[in-house]
UniProtKB/TrEMBL annotation:
SUPFAM superfamilies: L,D-transpeptidase catalytic domain-like. Keywords: Acyltransferase, Cell shape, Cell wall biogenesis/degradation, Peptidoglycan synthesis, Signal, Transferase. This is L,D-transpeptidase. The active site is at residues 116, 132. InterPro entries: LD-transpeptidase, LD_TPept_cat_dom, Transpep_catalytic_dom. Residues 1-26 form the signal peptide. Gene3D superfamilies: L,D-transpeptidase catalytic domain-like. It comes from the Bacteria.
Length: 157
């Protein structure tokens, strides 16, 4: 025990402090994640450090019902209820599918517009929703697992 303490002391004494100063003063690099939803191509692209890493086909709103602008993921819900028709989460009739990622559209609390699954996968690729972004359930489940609350989301034409 005494010998190991002496060795540690000698190593600390011998190693010049200046060789590590650049590393200890540098801020650690952290990956940034963001998403862009392109309504004209019906795609959702996930970016890591500004590099596109995943592209998913989506459905967007009829006419101009999907809002455009800068938002963020404000909440995440597993098996969301469809309150308009009181359909419980997990029910095969539920048009919201298996996951919900709410968008921070002003004055909505993250519960009006979101990225969600669907019970109608044939609708993916079109302008068919009431404003939300629909995805295949397997795709939105991937997002749910990997995209944290607070992730920036840009929706553009």
């Amino acid at each position: 025990m005494f010998r190991s303490k002496v060795m540690l002391f000698l190593v600390l004494l011998i190693v010049p402090y200046g060789t590590y100063s650049a590393q200890t003063n540098a801020a650690p690099l952290e990956d940034t994640v963001s998403m862009i939803i392109d309504k004209s191509s019906h795609t959702l692209t996930v970016y890591v450090n500004e590099d596109p890493v995943y592209v998913f086909q989506v459905a967007t709103g009829r006419r101009n019902l999907t809002p455009e602008g800068q938002f963020s993921i404000s909440n995440k819900i597993k098996n969301p209820w469809y309150l308009r028709k009181n359909i419980p989460g997990g029910d095969k009739r539920n048009p919201l599918g298996t996951r919900w990622l709410g968008l921070s559209v002003p004055n909505t609390g993250g519960y009006t517009y979101g990225i969600h699954g669907t019970n109608n996968p044939y609708s993916i690729g079109g302008s068919v929703s009431s404003g939300c972004i629909r995805m295949r359930n397997r795709d939105v489940e991937w997002l749910y697992r990997h995209i944290p609350v607070g992730t920036p989301v840009t929706i553009r034409e």
